[in-house]
Specification:
Blueprint (H helix, E strand, L loop, with lengths): L6 H6 L7 E4 L3 E5 L9 E5 L11 H22 L3 E5 L15 E6 L19 H8 L3
Antiparallel strand pairs: 1-2, 2-3, 3-5, 4-5
Length: 137
């Protein structure tokens, strides 16, 4: 079930544009509009739940499978040196959109300590160019 006032539910319904890279019966994946790096993808279930901890197991499994598929595509096309898989739950953990989602974040160079920047100063490739490289049809 989707919620009318949820940004990600509205993206799934096509009411808000996105750079879709993958979709199936259970999940929708699109490029983050404030990427940490080229290829930063959000994988979301097509059923609304605010948090990882209240998401049905079927959707957790489908998000994980889609994240793996997308990561392998990113490795093949964008050639990162590694990938972070990140889930933030609740405001205290920096969740900004309250629809469970997985961040798939390619890493192109090693950073000292863990660094999760929003919109870093690095030069980023256009979302359309990246979408065309990694989209799974």
């Amino acid at each position: 079930m989707l919620k009318k006032d949820c940004l990600f539910c509205r993206i799934i319904n096509g009411e808000v544009p996105s750079s879709k890279v993958y979709e199936n019966e259970y999940v929708y994946a699109f490029l983050d509009i404030f990427p940490n790096s080229d290829g930063h993808t959000l994988v979301i279930p097509k059923s609304h739940s605010d948090y990882f901890s209240d998401t049905e197991d079927l959707y957790l499994a489908e998000v994980a499978k889609a994240s793996k598929l997308i990561a392998n595509r990113i490795y093949d096309t964008l050639k990162p040196k590694g990938i972070n898989y990140i889930i933030n739950e609740k405001e205290e953990a920096f969740q900004q959109v309250f629809h469970y989602h997985m961040h798939v974040i390619p890493k192109y160079h090693r950073q000292e300590g863990y660094n999760f920047n929003i919109n870093p100063n690095d030069d980023l490739t256009s979302l359309d160019e990246i979408k065309n490289k990694i989209a799974i049809k």
